[in-house]
């Protein structure tokens, strides 16, 4: 879909189209309400602005749609399809790195109670592993901010992909 088509969708359809990018109703409603957009960068800027700040409840809702990094998303939902595409770009990777990432995921989840979330696009498996280890040492308050920032980045990248 291109920007012109997105701008002309009825509101209910536009909401459905945006939900896979980030399942946060307030964010979706804000992005839909500001249509029509003059350009893709204008739509992306609105999406970024609407994502500040996320509440803890919004973050938890969004996290429920994300698999552990390095694991294939299951199901045929649009969210699962996007996640599989994003993680496929990581490549097969070294078995040792994948095993270490699985351990880092579990350590992170044990500490914070949810999956480790990171924008996978443009990152290598070793970089993601390094970030998982670094972020596991974060205090909870700092990690909440990092997770929210990663959600913003993922949402904007997904929206950009939808409008390209």
UniProtKB/TrEMBL annotation:
GO terms for MF: 2-oxo-4-hydroxy-4-carboxy-5-ureidoimidazoline decarboxylase activity
Residue span, Oxo-4-hydroxy-4-carboxy-5-ureidoimidazoline decarboxylase domain: 7-160
Q: What class of enzyme is it?
A: lyase
Q: Where is the signal peptide?
A: none
- Keyword check for Lyase, yes or no: yes
Q: In which pathway does it act?
A: Purine metabolism; urate degradation; (S)-allantoin from urate: step 3/3
Keyword terms:
Decarboxylase, Lyase, Purine metabolism
Query: EC number(s)?
Result: 4.1.1.97
Q: Which residues form a coiled coil?
A: none
Q: What reaction does this enzyme carry out catalytically?
A: 5-hydroxy-2-oxo-4-ureido-2,5-dihydro-1H-imidazole-5-carboxylate + H(+) = (S)-allantoin + CO2
Gene3D superfamilies membership: Oxo-4-hydroxy-4-carboxy-5-ureidoimidazoline decarboxylase
UniProt keyword Nucleotidyltransferase present: no
Q: Which GO terms describe its biological process?
A: purine nucleobase metabolic process; urate catabolic process
Q: Which Pfam families match?
A: OHCU_decarbox
Stated name of the protein = 2-oxo-4-hydroxy-4-carboxy-5-ureidoimidazoline decarboxylase
Q: Which gene encodes it?
A: uraD
